[in-house]
Amino acid sequence: MRRYTSVGLSPLVAVILLIAITVAAAVVVSGVFFNLAGIAGRRPAAVIDYVKLVATTGGAGTWAVVVKNTGDVPITSIGSNFPGGCSVTLSFSPIPANPGQTTAATGSAASGCTLGNIYPIQLTVNFQDGSAITLSTQVTAALG
């Protein structure tokens, strides 16, 4: 008499399948985790991309400022402060500035801007999540 054995998976094939299933499950779980961590880890960030002060010999000056949103939260407003003089009112557009977008402003001062002087500028950037950061730089007044 012949004895019939059942035909099934060999132990080697079973181990390979088990490892493949485990790796696939790990990829799915890590993908979900990192996606949720990315949502929870949203960060507001911005940089001053460009700043220029063009002055005249008479003391008038024109500021040009560009801010780039390098974070994950939209910028809702930007306030400016000029501690060294040559003050202007800057109105940034477009606002809100979404992540990756730039926003720009220009403003003119009738007086107080001396050629060759270095003027500091401080920007307070407010974000949609209620947070704020202060950016500072300085620029030398130059002829256009």
Describe the structure.
The strands form 2 sheets. The protein has a 3-stranded antiparallel beta sheet with strand order 1-2-4, with no helix packed on it. Strands 3-5-6 form a 3-stranded antiparallel beta sheet, with no helix packed on it. It is built from 1 helix and 6 strands. The protein has a domain at about 45-140: Immunoglobulin-like, CATH 2.60.40.10. By secondary structure, the protein is α+β, with helices and mostly antiparallel strands. The model has no long low-confidence stretch (mean pLDDT about 90). Helices cover about 20% and strands about 35% of the residues.
Taking all Cα atoms into account, the compactness measure Rg is: 29 Å
Query: How do the helices and strands follow one another from N- to C-terminus?
Result: HEEEEEE
CATH class of the domain at 46-140: Mainly Beta
Strand order within the widest beta sheet: 1-2-4
Beta-strand content bin: 35-45%
CATH topology of the domain at 46-140: Immunoglobulin-like
Count of distinct strands: 6
Keywords:
single chain, 144 residues, Immunoglobulin-like, three-stranded antiparallel sheet, rod-shaped
In short:
The chain contains one helix and six strands. The protein has 144 residues and is of the alpha+beta class.
Explain the layout of strands and helices.
Blueprint: H1 11-40, E1 46-55, E2 61-69, E3 75-81, E4 102-109, E5 118-127, E6 132-140
Antiparallel strand pairs: 1-2, 2-4, 3-5, 5-6
